[in-house]
Description:
By secondary structure, the protein is α/β, with parallel strands linked by helices. It has helices spanning 20-28, 37-43, 84-87, 111-121, 129-132, 161-169, 192-201, 209-212, 217-230, 252-262, 281-285, 292-306, 315-319, 321-336, 342-348, 350-354, 357-382, 391-394, 398-417, 424-430, and strands at residues 2-3, 6-7, 10-13, 32-35, 53-60, 67-70, 76-83, 136-145, 149-159, 179-186, 234-237, 248-251. The protein folds into three domains: 2-43, no CATH class; 53-206, no CATH class; 219-430, no CATH class. The protein is built from 20 helices and twelve strands. A hairpin with a 2-residue loop joins strand 1 and strand 2. The longest helix has 26 residues, at 357-382.
Amino acid sequence: xxxxxxxxxxxxxxxxxxxxxxxxFLKHAQNIDFQGPSQILEAYISDKKDALQQGEAKFDISGxxxxxxxxxxxxxxxxxxxxxSELVALKGIEDxxxxxxxxxxxxxxxxxxxxxVASIKNKALHKxxxxxHNGVTVLAETVNSTDDQISIKNYFVVNGCQSLNAxxxxxxxxxxxxxxxxxxIQVPADSKLSELITSYSNNxxxxxxxxxxxxxxxxxxxxxxxVAKFKGRYAYEVKRGEPLAQGEAISNENAGLYLIAxxxxxxxxxxxKYQVFDEKYxxxxxxxxxxxARIVFCHELFGQIxxxxxxxxxxxxxxxxxxxxxxxxxxxxxxxxxxxxxxxxLIKEPExxxxxxxxxxxxxxxxxxLLDGLMIDLNLETENLGDDFDYRxxxxxxEFITKLSNELLSSFLKDIKRGKALPLQSLWDTINx
Length: 433
């Protein structure tokens, strides 16, 4: 049975794999999509991060006082100034996996980090380091302490990433007097309390709303899916400063802005970047159609737009970034109004257009042809606007954007009727792979 733009199919979902009888039956039952444990596990994309550094680490606190605080039999903390040289021996600093649950990775050569390095290199300040440094927070499955030693097992760092990276890179400068006030917390790694500690311990100036969403299951799932389906081609960045897999980087902030313009159809709001990880986060990312393929698809559309806005004769409009999100919205409207099924396919099946590099090249040519025509019309609409035209204000107005997009869409549809432009399916078919 067919519905407009949809085909109904049966899926048999079970927690058992098929036997020989089942396999024989499925060969003849073409209308059944069997999904057992093997098929589900093969397609499953995890929304979890593998945070724990397995193994034990020990810290010498001989002759020093330590503070302890017990919450319950499973949760307690030990606070003490520990040797920086022992901290930098923790596993996972070099590849940054130690900080996978931290809201940020190393931010590189910032002023704060330069100040930390300066204090590390000034050996006269080593003994004073705990007086002016905020310290490090380590979560572990077990934390034990005696008067002489603190030992931890299976651990990760949720606060102090910048400091530990600075100490690690300058390990040759460390002395026996440089100690770091460190809080060791025994707490289950996957518990709600662990998430709460991570969030609250990073609730400081310089931490953005985006940082607090870096460990959100949606973002983890999208990042894992990007690796699984686009390894070596694209990499999804969810955390500032994190080391990325090989491929063209797409930040989740940019992805959110793409989806605001293309899916939510609100390009006039894309100047408010904070909303991506705040008030609109669920509307943007919390939809089943938001996949890594959709993000790659929108990224490719935006890339073609970015390469063409320089064609606008009105340079003020051309250089304003909201113009690019406006054109992404116009492309969505073009797809929506396609009288054939190809426009719906572009919207609902983005993976078809980006699943191989050959398809991506064809998509770029296809979108390029569309944009070349739209840019001519946009030039006609904007080239004679006076120097006093409030392009910043107007491109943030829903009414102006709607009217301007209506003009472009009307011109495009007229060109198709007059034979000056091809319908979407015909245009796609004319493009060589």
